[in-house]
Write a structure and sequence with these properties.
By secondary structure, the chain is an alpha/beta fold. 37% of the residues lie in helices and 17% in strands.
């Protein structure tokens, strides 16, 4: 499925919401997405996910999913056009503390951190399927939960994903008995004893434009599980001024503010290119490279008496090889991209000239390189 298609055209359509003590957010958002009259194409979810606390989960199960009067089932019965989205106990995700215990509420800094990590992990997971479109509602839960959910959406959202806030007209907003405008209008009593008619309720969806930052995340973070802090830090490094630090003795390579792990030969190969920048000749043809330019740093990395160094020394006894040059360039670029994602761009090898006179090298300024 092409990502430029309307979200409603995707075979898997996911609604994700956070809730606290107001499970109405789920049915109100679902009504606004798929049941309310709208000139835009409707988005009927095929599955619904809810992220909440232990108490929020209890309320959601009782109010939405109970076999006797569950409002989710009532909505589906009143509005067949919504379809039959998957939504049961297994779709209600309870935020847990570092100890693994479900959180009853979110108040302390530690509980906020746990909520941020849970939200980040779930949004990352739900945006991995290219055949899915995700709709996120930030209307429910504590304000910090809504913030984290919106931030996570900005980090991982693709073109087909949407973010919104559901708006309910007064006095139906926050009314404990109002979950959606039923097909047959009902009278509800307010706290001051007045009666209101659900036929007068207006439920609308306010779509929130966001800056999508997914392209700045390393593939490893998009594919795996990472904390909120780690994800933000990885993205921040993509905007930091480039700085390359290499310590041959410890095999430490740092790009910007991120330490990365490279194989010993690639540490030495990167150092070879870094030394060329400091020497005033950053872009070189493979014939311009003395084998010693690689062997000297490689000896520092693996030791001059190691089998690996002796093997490299033997291979390059007649000078630099074109195949050796091209293979190491390719391996280095692949390793940098895997570790840094788009943030690798300043540290990748620039290519200039046409074959057979192609030259390669780092485009960093000499002052941006520290070689120990």
């Amino acid at each position: 499925m092409h990502s430029t298609a309307h979200p409603a055209a995707f075979p898997r359509r996911i609604l994700l919401a956070v809730t606290g003590l107001s499970p109405q957010i789920v049915t109100e958002t679902l009504y606004a997405l798929a049941a309310a009259v709208s000139p835009a194409p409707t988005f009927a979810p095929t599955e619904i996910h809810l992220l909440t606390t232990r108490e929020g989960a209890r309320l959601a199960k009782a109010a939405l999913l109970h076999s006797d009067g569950g409002q989710f089932h009532a909505l589906l019965a009143d509005y067949p056009q919504v379809g039959q989205p998957q939504f049961d106990d297994s779709h209600i995700h309870i935020i847990t503390a570092a100890s693994g215990n479900p959180l009853a509420d979110i108040r302390s800094p530690q509980e906020n951190a746990a909520a941020a990590d849970a939200i980040t992990a779930l949004v990352a997971e739900l945006t991995r399927d290219d055949n899915a479109a995700l709709h996120v509602s930030i209307a429910g839960g504590r304000k910090t939960m809504g913030f984290y959910l919106g931030y996570a959406f900005s980090l991982f959202a693709r073109p087909q994903d949407r973010l919104s806030h559901v708006l309910v007209s007064s006095p139906f907003e926050s009314h404990p008995e109002f979950f959606f405008p039923p097909a047959t209008p009902r009278r509800l009593a307010t706290r001051d004893g007045r009666h209101i008619d659900t036929a007068d309720a207006v439920v609308t969806l306010a779509e929130i434009p966001v800056v999508r930052l997914r392209h700045g995340l390393p593939q490893a973070l998009q594919a795996g599980r990472a904390s909120f802090v780690e994800t933000v830090a990885a993205l921040q490094s993509a905007f930091a001024p480039p700085r390359l630090e290499i310590d041959l003795t410890t095999r430490r390579v740092r790009c910007g503010d991120k330490d990365i792990t490279l194989k010993p030969a690639l540490v030495a190969w990167l150092a070879c290119h870094a030394q060329a920048v400091q020497g005033g000749q950053p872009l070189r043809h493979w014939r311009d490279i003395d084998a010693a330019d690689f062997l000297r740093p490689y000896a520092r990395v693996v030791g001059p008496d190691s089998e690996a160094f002796e093997a490299a020394q033997k291979r390059l006894k007649d000078g630099m090889e074109k195949e050796f040059f091209e293979q190491n360039n390719a391996k280095l670029e692949a390793a940098l991209k895997a570790a840094l994602g788009p943030a690798a761009a300043p540290y990748l090898l620039t290519r200039t000239g046409k074959k057979p006179n192609t030259r390669r090298g780092l485009a960093l300024a000499p002052e941006a390189i520290h070689l120990a």
